[in-house]
Amino acid sequence: MTITGENFDTEMGNKPDLVGEMRLKNIHKGEDGNEEFDEDGKPRRTGTVWTASAHIITAIIGSGVLSLAWCVAQLGWIAGPLALFTFSFITFYTSTLLADCYRSPDPVNGKRNYTYMEAVKANLGGAKYMICGVTQYINLVGISIGLTVTASISMVAIQKSICYHKEGHEASCAVSNNPPMISFGIFEIVLSQIPNIHKLSWLSTVAAIMSFSYTLIGVALSLQRIISGNTGNTSLGGIEVGPDVSEVQKVWRSFSALGDIAFAYSFSLILIEVQDTLRSPPAENREMKKATMIGVTTTTLFYVMCGCVGYAAFGSNAPGNLLTGFGFYKPFWLIDFANVCIVVHIVGAYQVFSQTVFAAFEAWVIKKWQTSKFITREYVMNIAGKRFKINCFRLVWRSIFVMFTTVLAMAMPFFNDVLALLGAMGYWPLTVYFPIEMYIAQKKMKRFTFRWVALELLNFGCLVVAVAAACGSIQGLTKALQVYKPFTSKQ
């Protein structure tokens, strides 16, 4: 094993352009004639429509897809599918507007905006830039914590399934969430040393395959239940008011369902960062629109299958997690495999979201302390003929970030309720408001023209839904806090 040192800036892509000192005008050529750097001085981007689609699918199709049967159960056969298709269209449309903001002022030949925040700053100015940053990064950190909780739930489900299979259905198989969370955190510390999102294509591809796998398993088991005739009651209006559900609860549940569906389509907060991985030519905005079409269309297909087939199977008793509705017993091996797929998918999703946080913080630190060897020095290790790059600052700070999210997940095992609130608050500004306002500014659109009015009506309508969803999330969070005991969660 040999160890050598080199500049951290090369691997991180933090050329002088990133820290605002200078811009390289020409594309540099390597010894083999290939382009080593793009026109901005950063390492040549190699992403394609398919790698971007994998990132999008990994970000959108979370294990939350398994809650869509519950969402449709609250809304019914009319409003449920309608909500799925409506949010699908809104997300795709506003994402195409956002894709045109990667470069400004011209969407094809303008200056690159490497992050969502930079795009907002270039198009809308400093005040909204700060609001965007606070909203985006609170959501990104919150998602990382929520993913840790969700992964532990699936890991615990596997342990309980094994326990019931060995000890019998009457055995007491309560398992603490804490050890699985710690194991997940340790694994993420290792993966967090992957330098940047550009290097995550393989992990996103694996994660996307896993998301398809567990979704299809949930749909297949639901179809089996439908064929057997063991189904619940369904209706056009969703869960009915009665002894078990009051009118107020019906309203809160409907609001919460809308929030869950809206949040299930949230990926715009990392769209610009994903677009920054695409090679050019062809133009990045055109390729990103293709990737968005593939990603949103694919996820909508799976969402409708999972939500509607799950509702048909369980009716008003649809569980919050579709896989838990089949119990831990039969077919235990298939449900265990589905939970393994969930964990593997979440491993990749955690990295897709957290790498955006890593990149933003590291760019700021490098700009502030450019001469620090602790921050900028890369150590290249040759192990068994393979080169691995280690940076002390990256190792320390990323490990601290993962440990922070893991400890918070252990302290607040109900964090998915908090995440639903963050999602409800973050969907409107990041997926709808900023893309629309940037597009209006970029096109210098005049007020009160037909298109301006249509865009602002869409903006206002999504705000109303977001406020309603936030109210539903707060009500669920209030219930969770009534029985809250930190670090003592068991299932």
TrEMBL record:
GO cellular component: plasma membrane
Residues passing through the membrane, by range: 49-70, 77-99, 137-158, 200-223, 293-313, 333-353, 395-412, 418-436, 457-477
One function term, GO molecular function aspect: symporter activity
Swiss-Prot/TrEMBL GO biological process terms: amino acid transport
Main localization (coarse): membrane
Keyword Magnesium listed: no
Amino acid transporter transmembrane domain residues: 45-477
Pfam families for the chain: Aa_trans (PF01490)
Keyword Transport set for record: yes
Subcellular location as annotated: Cell membrane
Domain of life: Eukaryota
InterPro entries from the UniProt entry: AA_transpt_TM
Keywords for this protein: Amino-acid transport, Cell membrane, Membrane, Symport, Transmembrane, Transmembrane helix, Transport
Homology family: Belongs to the amino acid/polyamine transporter 2 family. Amino acid/auxin permease (AAAP) (TC 2.A.18.2) subfamily.
Matches recorded under PANTHER family: OS05G0424000 PROTEIN-RELATED (PTHR48017)
Protein name: Amino acid transporter transmembrane domain-containing protein
Source species of the chain: Kingdonia uniflora
